[in-house]
Amino acid sequence: MTRDEEFEDLRPLLFSIAYRILGSVAEAEDAVQDTWLRWQGTSTQPASAKAFLSAVVTRISIDVLRSARVRREEYVGPWMPEPLLTDPYEDPERAAELADSLSTAALLLLERLSPLERAVFVLREVFGFGFPEVASAVGRSEAACRQLAVRARRHMNDGRPRFEADRHEREELAERFFDAFREGDVAGLRELLAADVCLVGDSGGKAPLVAQEAYGAEAVAALVVFVAERFDRIGVRLESHALNGQPGAIFHAPDGKVLSVMTLDVAEGRIQAIHALVNPDKLAHMGPVADIWALSRAAMEGDPGR
């Protein structure tokens, strides 16, 4: 296998590591590209291309994350990761860990960790790297990495729901939710929501939002129906689609362009959280993005905009 072939064979793994550390498709792709350039500039052949390249992309991602922290602290409103349609890396032996670590909820929990804790958790807990490899990747001793892993694992476990739903339950609840969404059925939505459900919207200050946050089944159900009615008025189409390994939907404008995405966190037989993303910068990798400002004006004016 040539060096180029080795890199391409490992590209899905490298992207998956970078995305979980950064929560951004664009930044993860840039990190992989920088890793490729360093790979091309290396004259010696490492004993393990996987270990070497994983270490390089991890260090690059840590540096990017540290610089991104300032931008995220100044971010307008709640911050959410960029949606990922499919994870390019597949490993049947770690399928459960890989899927769980992709969810919006997990990525938001990872945001609470320091860059080093986050990198150690991703390499060790998600991808199953040994501590010698983890230590080499983050530039710390094995003992220090073990401590970082313990802290990261504790923080992640504390933030997870006590009882998680299996895939079938998530999909069944999501189907009922989006059916009720299409029908504008407040009672049907309320029945599916946890009493303390939260709805969080991410616009980054670059798109109109009905509300950045809403809490409680009554308020969230009413808000969701309000949005559904406005979407119906201007001909927005809902496409159920798994996002970040969890049930969700992509909303398309009448011209087919991407308008927004929504993901659902399901646990204990109810929807615990709804995440709505309308920031156009975070949707650009999914295709042409709709002019949400124009559509919002059309909805306010009662113009179907067709």
UniProtKB/TrEMBL annotation:
The protein's name: RNA polymerase, sigma-24 subunit, ECF subfamily
InterPro entries, per the entry: ECF_Sigma-70_Domain, NTF2-like_dom_sf, RNA_pol_sigma-70_dom, RNA_pol_sigma-70_ECF, RNA_pol_sigma70_r2, RNA_pol_sigma70_r4_t2, RNA_pol_sigma_r2, RNA_pol_sigma_r3/r4-like
Organism of origin: Catenulispora acidiphila (strain DSM 44928 / JCM 14897 / NBRC 102108 / NRRL B-24433 / ID139908)
SUPFAM superfamilies: NTF2-like, Sigma2 domain of RNA polymerase sigma factors, Sigma3 and sigma4 domains of RNA polymerase sigma factors
Family recorded in the similarity comment: Belongs to the sigma-70 factor family. ECF subfamily.
Sequence ranges assigned to domain RNA polymerase sigma-70 region in this UniProt record: 7-69
GO BP terms in the entry: DNA-templated transcription initiation
Keywords: Sigma factor, Transcription, Transcription regulation
GO molecular function: DNA binding; sigma factor activity
Lineage: Bacteria, Bacillati, Actinomycetota, Actinomycetes, Catenulisporales
Database matches in NCBIfam families: PRK09636.1, sigma70-ECF, SigX4
Assembly, per entry: Interacts transiently with the RNA polymerase catalytic core formed by RpoA, RpoB, RpoC and RpoZ (2 alpha, 1 beta, 1 beta' and 1 omega subunit) to form the RNA polymerase holoenzyme that can initiate transcription.
Gene3D superfamilies: 1.10.1740.10, 3.10.450.50, Winged helix-like DNA-binding domain superfamily/Winged helix DNA-binding domain
Record carries keyword Transcription regulation: yes
Pfam families (alphabetical): Sigma70_r2, Sigma70_r4_2
Limits of the RNA polymerase sigma factor 70 region 4 type domain: 107-156
